[in-house]
From TrEMBL:
Gene3D superfamilies: 3.40.630.30, SCP2 sterol-binding domain. InterPro entries: Acetyltransf_17, Acetyltransferase_Eis, Acyl_CoA_acyltransferase, Eis_dom, GNAT_dom, NAcTrfase_Eis, SCP2_sterol-bd_dom_sf. PANTHER family: N-ACETYLTRANSFERASE EIS. Homohexamer; trimer of dimers. It comes from Kribbella voronezhensis. Keywords: Acyltransferase, Transferase. GO terms for biological process: aminoglycoside antibiotic catabolic process. The lineage of its organism: Bacteria, Bacillati, Actinomycetota, Actinomycetes, Propionibacteriales. This is Putative acetyltransferase. Acetyl-CoA binds at V80, G81, V82, R88, R89, G90, V91, M92, S93, S113, E114. HAMAP family: Eis. Pfam families: Acetyltransf_17 (PF17668), Acetyltransf_9 (PF13527), SCP2_2 (PF13530). Belongs to the acetyltransferase Eis family.
């Protein structure tokens, strides 16, 4: 093996990068991937090469993310793959290390294929999601009556126009939600037959308020399944966004009471998903907890200034960061409900927080106090841990509703 080099991507790398990543993840990249090519940002990709051959890849996508009290730029990292012939020789470490030092955003986020991979680079699991495998015969939902015209369906062309404002509104309500450009929406609603896994075409269900305005939608597919004992059809819910309680209840009621269906699978529920309040038998929901969005703070003062805090706080935080030494040091964080200021200081630290734990708590879904229990976060001034834990928390849990 010659020496491994890392360089910035070029447009012509697209196919070779897709092949390396596809083989690493064990899927066949689609031959006709026009939208994928248009979404590719070569100048934000890094490739590792062994001679002429690409042996490792990573990409950063330009997207925004909702964080407590704001929507901010976040490098969306994806496409991390290393050829099996070159694994465990530091190729990923070289790619991720350089990427984190170079991204212009103050935070980077990703979905990890395995939870053991990214902690070593200072990523923390900031969002924990819940997946459901609901037994529709047992779950016992209330049946919500709807008025004529309240529920309806959209074509894909209508959805391009109608759905983006709802996602933006969701970003204002919950941290952890990634924004979508027009092109990204096209990709999201693309519905190639070969990607359906035997399910129906995607159905786009919407809820309208009394004025006719859409205030909620659900993207779902069905799968016919007949057993000797009768129908056991499967509903797969891909996304549900509801801005009002009436929309939320009506959409879920529709989905949970569909004729012939026995199960409903959904992979993107929040830890505090309100559905738990609506069903009578939560034990029939087949709940499984998992890490979803991992977050890495790449610029401490900028990151801490661009989110809002649940309570006023004035503390000196010592951040430790082995990968990006420029991040390490002491910072005074001063915030009230509406403003935040974070600057370097020589004052003694009230708390020490490793950068990974700063990432894990950044979206308000994990508690600093949780990490003090294992000694990862250390309190130096009595009371500092409580005030910081309350200030960093947020009234609603973050949720990431899309693997990117
Ligand atoms: C995961 C992957 C990118 C790692 O690439 P790599 O070049 O072998 O990684 P490195 O050699 O830089 O490994 C660095 C460290 O991470 C560890 N590591 C690598 N993959 C890991 C995994 N899946 N789980 C836990 N630890 C892992 C290594 O053991 C090594 O630890 P060490 O420093 O203590 O020895 C590669 O194995 C791969 O492509 N896997 C399949 C696709 C995939 O899962 N991609 C990630 C998508 S989010």
């Amino acid at each position: 093996m010659t020496e491994i080099a890392v360089r910035v991507g070029v447009a012509e790398d697209y196919e070779a990068m897709s092949a390396v990543f596809g083989t690493a993840m064990m899927f066949d990249p689609s031959g006709d991937d026009e939208l994928g090519k248009r979404l590719f940002e070569p100048e934000r990709a890094l490739v590792a090469t062994d001679g002429e051959e690409i042996v490792g890849t990573t990409k950063a996508l330009t997207r925004d993310l909702s964080v407590p009290g704001a929507v901010v730029p976040a490098a969306h990292v994806t496409g991390v793959g290393v050829r099996a012939t070159h694994r465990r020789r530091g190729v990923m470490s070289a790619l991720i290390g350089r990427q984190l030092r170079e991204v212009p955003e103050a935070i980077a986020v990703l979905w990890a294929s395995e939870p053991g991979i990214y902690g070593r680079f200072g990523y923390g699991a900031a969002t924990r999601g819940v997946s459901y495998e609901i037994d529709l015969h047992r779950v016992g939902p209330p049946v919500v009556p709807t008025r004529p015209g309240e529920l309806g369906e959209l074509t894909v062309d209508e959805a391009y126009k109608e759905l983006p404002p709802l996602l933006r509104a969701l970003q204002e309500r919950r941290p952890g939600v990634s924004g979508r450009s027009e092109l990204k929406w096209q990709r999201h609603l693309e519905d190639k037959k070969e990607d359906r896994g035997g399910r129906t075409a995607r159905q786009i269900l919407v809820h309208r308020d009394e004025t006719g305005a859409i205030d909620g939608y659900a993207l779902w597919r069905g799968k016919m399944n007949w057993q000797a004992a009768g129908p056991t059809n499967e509903v797969r819910l891909e996304e549900l966004v509801a801005l009002e309680p009436t929309a939320y209840k009506a959409l879920w009621s529709y989905l949970l009471t569909m004729d012939l269906a026995a199960t409903l699978a959904y992979g993107y529920a929040a830890l505090d998903e309100p559905l738990l309040q609506l069903v009578t038998t939560p034990t029939a929901m087949g709940r499984r907890l998992g890490e979803s969005l991992w977050l890495r703070v790449t610029d401490v003062p900028r990151a801490l200034e661009q989110r809002r805090y649940a309570a006023a706080v004035d503390l000196v935080i010592e951040v430790t960061d082995e990968l990006i030494p420029a991040n390490a040091g002491r910072y005074r964080l001063t915030a009230d409900g509406t403003t935040a200021r974070c600057a370097r200081t020589d004052d003694p630290a009230d708390l020490t927080i490793p950068v990974g734990e700063l990432g894990a708590t950044y979206l308000g879904g994990r508690q600093l106090a949780e990490f003090a229990l294992t000694g990862r976060v250390v309190e130096h001034t009595p009371g500092a841990l409580n005030s910081a834990t309350i200030a960093f928390s947020w009234p609603v849990h973050p949720v990431s509703i899309e693997v990117f």
